[in-house]
Amino acid sequence: MKYRLLGRSGLRVSELCLGTMTFGEEWGFGTNKQDSKKVFDAFTNAGGNFIDTANLYNNGTSEKFVGEFISSQRDYFVLATKFTLQNPGDPKNINSSGNSRKSMMNSVEDSLKRLNTDYIDLFWVHAWDSLTPIDEVMRGLDDLVKSGKVLYVGISDTPAWVVSSANTMAEIRGWSRFAALQIEYSLIQRAPERDLIPMANAFELAVTPWGSIGGGALTGKYLSETDKGPKRIKEGSARLNERNTAIAKVVKSISDESGIPGSIIALNWIRQQKGLFIPIVGSRTDKQLIENMKCTDIILSDDIMKTLDEASKIEYGFPHDFLKGEPARTIAYSGQFDNIINHRK
Hints:
The chain is an alpha/beta fold. The chain contains 13 helices and 10 strands. It has 2 domains: 3-314, TIM Barrel; 319-345, no CATH class. Helix content is 39%, strand content 13%. The strands form 2 sheets. An 8-stranded parallel sheet has the order 9-8-7-6-5-4-3-10, covered by helices on one side. Strands 1-2 form a two-stranded antiparallel ribbon. Residues 226-237 have low confidence and may be disordered.
């Protein structure tokens, strides 16, 4: 595995990030400690050093497992966790969730205890709560960085205008900026291309997509009625509407022809996009994770990329389509758009 810089920072992280939401069994779909350790070991044996968890994953068990697994080599690992979701130890407290300074400070202290560490490498805002002022969030995060309890900050599942406003504010005031953006992004979820990804590229944010294989839909497993029976099809049906089914069939066709598994096709379509993409890979089994990590050894051809782009294309809507069309293009560029060499493409 190779390494990438985390956005506009000098932090070196593996080109894949291990997602640990399945570490623990409290939510009914995860893995016990022994199997979680096998997944962790498979990732680290491949050279992975970037581990992602969150305060609420399996009611705090994920953080506890991760903290134990990394303890013997703490400084080797880039440990990322999140706040915003309710504190698993105090779920009915109205201030145990959200992005307020109170929630933030309580959450980081509780995460440090569960992780059994003195510091967090990357501390994520898990989701925007629409109530807390942007300056309160950014000042609070900067205080955590200054205290040494957090080294870098990132933001997840938040509108592009909020992230851009926050980073601009931080730049002006000398506070810590967001270095990374976590979003859902895949062949079946391309909405971030409208604003979030162009914003990330403009601010040099690392993008760590979750849901890269569409909840399993892009592996093709929901296309077969013989795969674990009707119940499994029903569980996957939300991912396989008419559009997504058509995309999954294209991925399966490419997989059948090329011999590349659908999950790797889905991951590498993301990895080969313009920008700094570090997909989050998670798995219930070490075997499955090892298979998906093979994406680092494969490059999809231009023809395959074009086929996937066409099969999954979306309408960008206003103002994007308006600005790329006529008469806006003629008026804005004096009819000379094709004669302008744009190095920022």
